[in-house]
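Appendix B: a complete holo record

For completeness, this appendix reproduces one full record from the ligand-bound portion of the collection. The bound molecule is S-adenosylmethionine. The inputs are the chain sequence and the ligand SMILES; the output is the full three-dimensional arrangement of the complex, encoded as structure tokens. No fields have been trimmed.
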Amino acid sequence: MSEVRIEKNAIRSLWLEAVKEVAKEYPGTDVPWYLTLSGAEARDIQLLIDEGLLSLTEVGSIKENDQHKVVAVERNNQAILELQKKLPGLKIKRAEFRDLIRGDGIFSWPQGDDEKYCRAHIVNLDLNNPLRGATCNGEVTFPVLSWIRKLCQLHARSPRYDWTLCLTLHGEVVWLEEVNTWTKSFLAENLRREPDFAKGCREFLGEELVTQVTGCSPIDFSTLDRTGQQKIIMVMVPKMIAKLVHNEGWNVSTERNLSYGQAGCAPMVTWIVRFTWSSDGSATPDALYRAALKDILSGAGVVTDRGQIETESYC
Ligand SMILES: C[S@@+](CC[C@H](N)C(=O)[O-])C[C@H]1O[C@@H](n2cnc3c(N)ncnc32)[C@H](O)[C@@H]1O
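The structure of the chain with S-adenosylmethionine bound, as generated:
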């Protein structure tokens, strides 16, 4: 974890911009600005300190007045010890993120401080895991995406807060046959129903892959090359998020949809997604869904090994 990846620095600067905006908009908010899986080194939080968004005392602790602004969630005890040493005064929630939000289901919900943390203006899930799919009674779910729906439901509580998700995943496909089959038919149906989405996908994924997805033969997405696998996940994740939350009145805008990781490094994918409440959204969920699809690929691109963000509009 200690190596400095230039691509990752470019991504951290996107997160920093998001926190700056929140700090400007909500200087005295009652929920944290930023909930993060910062890791032992807390490089993202260090950036907030360097930029003056958090202040330190003379002995290097986060000042009391700023301590409510940022919360780090960490499940690894060693990382917690290092974090405590590096940034005294930092609020650290010792937990598996799934336990913090009380699981993927809707029967249990966080209370008290845990609820407050989950309602942070920015939630940064910087995960090294791939997008795992689970099957239950013929239904396919993606647990990480269920967390995101749950976070939307928590942000919709009174007082409702618009919020931003930063999500990073390993960009390899690791799905069982049922998940591949489900993904193929989900994408195929949307390609048939949404001409603009289909046009963007043809440009982004290539004609050949789109023809495979809409064709009759099964696909094992894990046999695609590295870039193909990253691209399928880049299409799937924002599409699924829009599907999961549009009924609840959230306008979903995929501001960044990027891949990174050169040969020899792990292939990664990362997104910045804004959720803004639409006052008439619950009355017109279909309109919200279509609007969300529009920008899934409009900011898609790569972070190069020089840390440059290269995007192209595929729509
Ligand atoms: C990829 S690192 C974070 C890197 C950091 N964001 C940065 O900018 O350098 C992820 C950290 O989150 C912790 N972590 C990963 N998944 C977690 C989960 N589901 N719940 C709690 N902590 C988790 C890991 O132990 C690790 O310390």
